[in-house]
Structure formats: C-alpha cells, structure tokens
C-alpha cells in the first residue's frame, strides 16, 4: 500500500438552479479524478444554496443515484458534501418544515458506505449583510458520531460548523479517524477570521489530516462564502489551498507523516481524560 493517498476538495459557488450545481460538481469531480485523486470531497449544500430544502430533499434518491454514477464513472471515493434529507437514519420522517443535513460517503462502485447527519447547527449572528443565521429553523440536528473506511484511510465525518467543536474531532480520532473531512459553507466574514485557524488547530490538536471543501463567492445579494478549501497535515502545515474562486484542491495524505507526528507528539496517549469521561452526545 502506498504511503501517499491523493485527495481532492471541490470548491463551488452553488446557487438555486440544481442542473447548474450538478454540472459544476461533475466538472470538479472530473478534475479531481484527472489529478489522481482517490477521494473527492464536495462542499456543504453543493446541490442547492438558498433553496427550499424540504423541496430539494424530495429529490434525495435521485441525487444519491447521480452521486453513485459519478463515483463509478470517476472511480472515486466520493464524500458528497451535504444533501437535505427528509428521513432520519432509522427511517422516521423529520417533521416539516425541517430536514436533516446529511453527508454521504460512496465507494468507487457507487454504493453508499456511510452517512453522517450534521450535529451542530449554525444559529449565530454575524456582522455581514445577512446578519442573522438560524439553521435550526430549517434543519434538525443529527445524533451520531460517524467514522468510515475510504481509500485506505479511516475518515471522520463532520460538516462546516462542526469544525468549531473540538470534542467531536477528538471523538472521531478516538474512533480511529486519520483524516477528518469538513464539507463547509463558511461565510466570507467568519471564514476570513477563523477558517484557516480552525483547520490548522484541528489538525495539530488531533494529530490527523484535515480536508475542507468550502463554498465560495456570492450566492445571493446578502450571502457570500469564503472559499479557501484546503488540506492540512498533522503538523499544521497547509498542504494545498484554494483561493476565493471555484476550483479543485489536490493534495497527498502521507501515511509516513501521520505515523511520524503521532509518534513524536503522542497526545492521545498523554491526555488525562478519556473521550467517554467528557463527551456525552445530547
């Protein structure tokens, strides 16, 4: 098994037209595959931004089939950003008008490997044109921590605002995660202030690689995303980073680096708390 595993983050400016968003996602996946990626990550809400998510969720099965086709065509492990989902993992329906925000991981055969529902919802006030963000009015939070195998790695699955919650990252790494993935839509304001800082801190504190695929650019008159999708190594070095435009970031996850950093800085052996003693999902 090679020590180097090429991964990709597809950076998009998603809008309200589904066909345009899928066309952009497909172009990004083609570039990722052409660059040798074994795993590609789409951003949060890649299929629609600022839309009626309950209505888009009615297309969930169609979108999942489309994603499976893309994974097969490009022979990729595909971490599909996030999709709005009307149904919980147990099959029960989320009461209208809310849905869940679900990240789905598919294999090169197009089959679903795992799904993760966003735990932490972005209910904040930001000094930008929109000002008020209340995801909980539209989305229901998930209730599970999810790791999954992909491209010879163990992935820890998270979404956007989850990046601000270090206990989730620590719980994922405690379950074996080597690469944490964050499909995101950081605002232009919060992204400029915190995106790189949070990504690098997450990698250093947890001794793992961190891959973030961000939305970018102007989605509407009041809503803009920061971009700057990136891959960070366990030493906190930015391996590859995008700018503020739609693009594809390619970088290598190096098993040798992962082993060396974890050996030199064995923080998981030194910590005095177990995850179970301070982490109880509520």
Automatic annotation (TrEMBL):
Gene3D superfamilies assigned: Carbon-nitrogen hydrolase (3.60.110.10)
Database matches in SUPFAM superfamilies: Carbon-nitrogen hydrolase
Record keywords, A-Z: Hydrolase
Residue runs in coiled coils: none
Domain CN hydrolase: 5-255
Pfam family name, one: CN_hydrolase
Gene Ontology molecular-function annotations: hydrolase activity, acting on carbon-nitrogen (but not peptide) bonds, in linear amides
UniProt cross-references to InterPro entries, sorted A to Z: C-N_Hydrolase (IPR003010), C-N_Hydrolase_sf (IPR036526), Nit1/2_C-N_Hydrolase (IPR045254), UPF0012_CS (IPR001110)
Similarity section: Belongs to the carbon-nitrogen hydrolase superfamily. NIT1/NIT2 family.
Protein name from the UniProt record: Carbon-nitrogen hydrolase family protein
Originating organism: Alloalcanivorax xenomutans
